[in-house]
Amino acid sequence: MGENGEVVLLGIFGSSCCKRVELALKLKGIPFAYVEEDLTNKSDLLLLSNPVHQKVPVLLHDGRPICESLLILEYIDEHWSNAPKLLPEDPYTRSQIRFWADFYDQKVRLATYNFLMTKGKDQDKAREDFVELLRVFEEGIQRDFPTKSPFFHGENLSFLGIVVGTNACNYQAFEEAIGKITDRERNALFFSWVDELKAHPLMSENLPPHDQLVAQMKAQFFRTPKV
Ligand SMILES: N[C@@H](CCC(=O)N[C@@H](CS)C(=O)NCC(=O)O)C(=O)O
User: Fold this and answer.
1) What is the pTM of this model?
2) What's the chain look like in SS3?
3) 148 C-alpha to center of ligand 1: Å?
4) How far apart are the CA of 212 and the centre of ligand 1, in A?
């Protein structure tokens, strides 16, 4: 076992939650083994490691499981507390970052699922909700971080940059596979942030291959019954 202990990531291709963990480990320079799960036939290791949610990602550190991607990022930042840091030092700023990461996850990311699961007028409403949530996100970020981008720490991606970027950089693939949900004019500020995140080498070099992602999303979408 090296000085980092044994680090294993259970994940699946195309999952932004899993990609977050991968990027955080790479940012910190932590060697890890990646194990691809099959969610149609979950491994005993996954079921034992995450008995409550039975979901990926799971990080195993010396055999001990940590579940939930945002909590895994915090664990990584606390355990490997060397630079580059994911979260800022100041407790108030940390809490603001956590607030907006949670908002993005619980509201914005879930709005894309609502879009995916609906059709017709319900889908139009889901699209409008998504645009409005991004507007709230834009306003909040501008208000809470008026002088410094919360998506980067100097040259490096930050906690929020990783959380938002790993998901939003795939909207183009989502739209090719599922349908038009974004409005780049109405959320121009948000998409200027996404473009910056996409241009960052750690992000661009680690995004899932576009065509493979589109194919996977299409396959998943046509398996999912629409309400
Ligand atoms: N809140 C969780 C969400 C993880 C999640 O939704 N994982 C999906 C794959 S992207 C999963 O494992 N789904 C399996 C299932 O629902 O049975 C996190 O942030 O880690």
Assistant:
1) 0.95
2) CCCCCCEEEEECCCCHHHHHHHHHHHHHCCCCEEEECCCCCCCHHHHHHCCCCCCCCEEEECCEEEECHHHHHHHHHHHCCCCCCCCCCCHHHHHHHHHHHHHHHHHHHHHHHHHHCCCHHHHHHHHHHHHHHHHHHHHHHHHHCCCCCCCEECCEECHHHHHHHHHHCCHHHHHHHCCCCCCCCCCHHHHHHHHHHHHCHHHHCCCCCHHHHHHHHHHHHHHCCCC
3) 31
4) 20
Please indicate whether residue 158, judged by its CB atom, sits closer than 6 Å to ligand 1. no
User: pLDDT by residue (tens digit) across 193-225?
Assistant: 999 999 999 999 999 999 999 999 999 877 665
Q: Which residue, judged by its Cα, is nearest atom 11 of ligand 1?
A: 55
Question: Which domains does the chain carry?
Answer: 7-79 (3.40.30.10), 91-223 (1.20.1050.10)
Q: Kindly report, residue by residue over 105-140, the tens digit of the pLDDT.
A: 999 999 999 999 999 999 999 999 999 999 999 999
